[in-house]
Structures are given as C-alpha cells and as structure tokens.
Amino acid sequence: MKLWLVAASVLCFSLPAALGLTCFDCYTTISWDGCRPASKTCHATFDRCAKIYTKVGEVETFTKNCIPNAACDKDANPTCQKAVGYSKCDINCCALDDCNAGSTFRISGILLLTCALASLMILVKA
Prior knowledge:
Elements: H1 2-19, E1 22-28, E2 38-41, E3 48-56, E4 59-67, H2 78-82, E5 87-94, H3 109-125
Antiparallel strand pairs: 1-2, 1-4, 3-4, 3-5
InterPro entries: Snake_toxin-like_sf
Transmembrane segments: 105-124
Signal peptide: 1-20
C-alpha cells in the first residue's frame, strides 16, 4: 500500500514537468491590455515564460511567449538584439505555468484606505 502511495505521488509531481511549461502567447503593438493571450505548452528547451516590451523609435511592441532561460538576458535575447539605434527592451521572465499573464500588479488606493479605516475601527473598539 505504501509503495502504491509513493508511486502515485511521484507520478503526480513529475507529470507537470513531463507535460512542459505553459505560457501565455501573444504579440501586439497596441498595449499590454491589447494583448489577448492564449495559453500554450512550451517546447522542452523553452523553460521560461516571458513578457517582452520593446520600443524602437516610436514603435512599441508587447510580447508574451515561451523562451529559453538564456534569452532572459537582454544581451542574449534575439528580440532585444534586433532593436538597434534609439531603443528600449524590457524582459520579465518567470518559471511557473502561465506566470506571464497579467500586467503590473497595482494596489487600489480606495481598497487600501478602506482596509486602514477598518483596522483603525477594530483597534478603537478593542
């Protein structure tokens, strides 16, 4: 019975690795919000999800895709290498399934104020 449990545990933990990393994949020149990504399974050699922003002159590109770990470095990334002249290239890499999903995390000021006031009211009552 214990052997069966160990085998099942090993299978459960190794199955996601065997299936490969999944990342969101899209490309647009509009904005991060204009990027309508679809999740895809990455090739075995592509072990990172990435969000890549480039600006060459006035042209901006927003890309989400699978890349190899080495391409997380600006100097080794083919997209950044193509950007010549006046340019900007930002790369954000991560290694969890669909971790390149959203735009930058933002905290709502109203939510923060509400939580602070609720905490203050609880402290005053106690």
